[in-house]
Design brief:
- By secondary structure, the protein is of the alpha/beta class.
- About 30% of the residues lie in helices and about 25% in strands.
- A seven-stranded mixed β-sheet has the order 11-12-10-13-14-16-15, with helices on both faces. It has a five-stranded mixed β-sheet with strand order 5-6-7-8-9, with helices on one face.
- The radius of gyration is 22 Å and the shape is globular.
- It starts with a strand and ends in a 10-residue tail after the last helix.
Length: about 425
């Protein structure tokens, strides 16, 4: 048994939970995946892990002439629509290096067959070129990253790196093992894929637990994509995340969804908070706008701790907060009080009161005399999908969005 993976019956490599939720890439340098004592040629890769971990496992298996199948948690996608998704192989200015770029549309939950159709032309391009180094990047799932890494090893690529907004650049495969797990400075051939935005904005969604934060953050992220603003959404609740599959499963089987989410819950640690803060900072290197779905605090205490000690390291990286509160239980004063010792209370610039989560969705907003945007929002139910909510939230979001952009940082410096 290792720290970050186990090999179980049925030739299954299962990623393990870190006490801090997030494994550092250095983990695979200290303890790379080893299958030498197992004779199997067909393997299953599964578990809660980042893209670079899936790529490392698949590449390692391919180097040992083994085949791998990835099993992801949650529900299987149902969409065959590839209209807003893309997958490209890019030769670079250095003929020894190439980039494999993926972008699965944020609203699309694609079937495995659709993903294969999307990726096949670019994978064929990868097979036609002979390169020493490959960078895999873009918005995709672990199965896609694993597929590219395995195909690259089959085609004698000697160094594979993953470049993702959450983790930066990570070397996931090195034929001689010397640089495995390193996070090098980007080389010149990668420069066209690392153009930093002129200004950056981190929008933090805050509020008490079960007030609809995650549903709203997904809707806001969908809106961002619809208006062609390049960006990202980061789930910052390291202890109790709300992944897309949980929201999808909640609609079909609430009891199973709750059980599955409970199984991945962890206790907060200072290291976890530091790691999430680092991820938020890293998003500024890639995107003009990033949306941070933030935790609701510790409500087992009386009074609740909305910003527990050291949680401020995450909050400090946010430029502007949108507070979601229940209309019959205002929490604005409590949140401002919790943020005030860290001089962050003035960053709450939008306050939305949630009414009738199960009702017909709507959003009405207006600006008060202090420049705070306030509104009534209906329909923040987990069963509602972003593409259902955004059309009816559109007018309200159109008013809020310019107000948010006024808090962008032009140079990455703090406010």
């Amino acid at each position: 048994m290792s720290d970050w993976y186990t090999i179980t019956e049925g030739n299954q490599i299962e990623f393990q939970k870190s006490k801090d939720r997030y494994w550092a890439p250095e983990t695979i340098r200290i303890n790379p995946l080893s299958i030498q004592s197992y004779p199997a040629t067909d393997w299953i890769i599964t578990g809660w892990g980042p893209m670079w971990m899936y790529a490392h496992a698949a590449a390692t298996l391919a180097a040992a002439n083994c085949k791998s199948q990835v099993r992801l948690g949650g529900t299987t996608g149902t969409s065959e629509n590839l209209a807003n998704s893309r997958c490209r192989f890019h030769p670079t200015c250095d003929p020894r290096c190439a980039v494999f770029e993926m972008d699965f549309a944020q609203e699309a939950h694609l079937t495995d067959a659709a993903i294969e159709r999307l990726m096949d032309p670019a994978l064929s391009e990868l097979c036609r070129y002979k390169v020493d180094k490959l960078c895999i990047t873009g918005r995709a799932n672990g199965k896609a990253y694993a597929a590219v890494a395995a195909k690259a090893v089959e085609n004698q690529v000697r160094i594979i790196q993953c470049l993702t907004p959450a983790d930066g650049q990570v070397i996931v495969y090195d034929a001689d093992g010397s640089s495995l797990g390193e996070r090098p400075e980007p080389e010149s051939w990668l420069t066209p894929y690392l153009t930093a935005p002129k200004s950056t904005l981190i929008v933090g969604i805050i509020g008490d637990p079960n007030c609809g934060k995650s549903v709203f953050s997904l809707a806001l992220n969908h809106y961002r994509g619809a208006i062609k603003c390049q960006g990202w959404r980061l789930d910052c609740d390291g202890a109790s995340p709300t992944p897309d599959w949980y929201l999808s499963l909640s609609e079909k089987d609430p009891a199973q969804a709750k059980s599955a989410r409970e199984a991945v819950k962890l206790s907060w640690t200072s290291d976890m908070e530091d790691l999430i803060a680092e991820k938020i900072i890293r998003l500024r290197q890639f995107f003009a706008v990033a949306i941070a779905d933030l935790p609701g605090g510790n409500h087992t205490k009386t009074p609740p701790e909305r910003v527990p000690n050291h949680r401020e390291v995450m909050m400090r990286e946010v430029d502007v907060f949108i507070l979601i509160e229940r209309a019959n239980e205002s929490s604005e004063l409590a949140w401002r009080t919790a943020l005030a010792p860290h001089r962050l209370d003035h960053r709450i610039r939008v306050v939305l009161s949630s009414v009738d989560p199960n009702g017909t969705p709507s959003l009405e907003v207006c600006e008060d005399h202090k420049g705070i945007w306030r509104g009534i929002i209906r329909g923040l139910d987990r069963a509602k999908k972003p593409d259902e909510l955004v059309p009816v939230f559109q007018n309200g979001l159109n008013q809020i969005w310019p107000a948010l952009l006024r808090h962008s940082r032009s140079d990455g410096a703090g406010q």
